[in-house]
Structures are given as C-alpha cells and as structure tokens.
C-alpha cells in the first residue's frame, strides 16, 4: 500500500510486530516445559493484549502484571486480555519499575515489558530481511526498542528510524544498542531514533495528534493507532515537509498497530 505524505510517496507495510516479538519466546517457553506466561504492561499495553491472545491460541495460561490500580470497568485493552483468559495482577508504580514478580505465581516463563528481549530481536530481524533492498529508509514506532533493534539488524540495505512514543526517551538508544549487543555480540545496522514526536508522552493523545489521525483515515482509509503509529506517521510527515530525505530515497513505514 502506498500513500502520499508530505508531498512524497510512502510505502506502508501493515502488520503487527507482536507475533514476531513473541514467536521465539513461545518456542522457548514450550521447549522449557512451561505452561504459564507472565509479562508486564500498562493499562493500555498492546503487548498485554497480544500475549493474552497468543497464550490462548497456543495453549498457555497467561498472567499480566499491570502498572497502577485496578479501574473498573476495564478499558478495551484489558477487557480483551481477560476475555482471552489472562489473569491481571495490579502493582504500585514503584514495584512495577523494579519489575518485581508478585508472590504466589506458578512456575512460569517471563516475557519482559513490551516483549523486548533477544528472542524478540531475532523475530523482528526477519522483517528486515524480508524487506530486502526495496527501501532506503524504513520507519517504525519505538516503545521499548525491540522492534527497531531487530528490524535494523535484519536490513541488508538502507537505514531504520525509530520514532519514540515516550517522553524523555534518550535512554532508548542505549536500550536498542544493548539488545543488539546481547543478541548478536555487536551493535548491528544503520539506525537512529527520533525523539521529537511523542506528543507529550506515552498514551498522550492531544487534539493535534487526533486531528492528524482523523485526516489520515479520511484520505487513505486506514485508521492509525494514536499511541504508536499515529505519532510515527505525523513525525514522518513533518520530516518530509522539511525536506529531510533526498528525493531519490525510497521510504517505507511499518504500521504495527
């Protein structure tokens, strides 16, 4: 799918990154004999949603450790997770920051927040390999850095740009480099991170962002997720308007929602 954005043609690769991040983790959990998956996420975490669905489809029990207090009724993300069989356990923010596992959980396979670990990087590298040499620039939203780390490592041509969706995300560069180092023993690929288009921080959706998402849907028939892909596409449009990319460069944006 191609769209006109900022006066340029941009190819859209529409697919969820979550199955790629979970693929090798599920294989490892099965090989290690685990029957329960435990992971972390905020109240609007797509990762919790994806883990709950994957658990149901592949025969795992799932537990989601959620940052903050329980709020009823559940929002659509958490409601979907529980409908897939996920048990939600709420912890205070300090406990969550320390990624402490609550007492009383059964033996389990632990998947980190956002699903970003070495196995996730290997899964996302397959996307970069599939893109081959078709594009000079590949853009992707960046939350915990796993997708960008894998995508950049898998590319055989061009460069990857991660659009940070969190405020004060200077740490994300080190996170991506560390994930690649742990996975491959070296930092791989040509990549960078844009930190200017977070729109106030994670889960912040100010009017300007929602206006962009509505306009994009009206023009192209595709509803962007404002938490991740809406921020990336708005940022990409701004960069295109400013002439950031040479005219000859072929641009792809990965729509991960």
UniProtKB/TrEMBL annotation:
It comes from the Bacteria. The keyword S-adenosyl-L-methionine does not apply. The active site is at 45 (nucleophile). Gene3D superfamilies: 3.40.50.1100. Pfam families: PALP (PF00291). Keywords: Pyridoxal phosphate. GO terms for molecular function: D-cysteine desulfhydrase activity. Residues 15-257 form the Tryptophan synthase beta chain-like PALP domain. The keyword Oxidoreductase does not apply. GO terms for biological process: alpha-amino acid metabolic process. The modification N6-(pyridoxal phosphate)lysine is found at residue 18. Its cofactor is pyridoxal 5'-phosphate. Belongs to the ACC deaminase/D-cysteine desulfhydrase family. This is 1-aminocyclopropane-1-carboxylate deaminase.
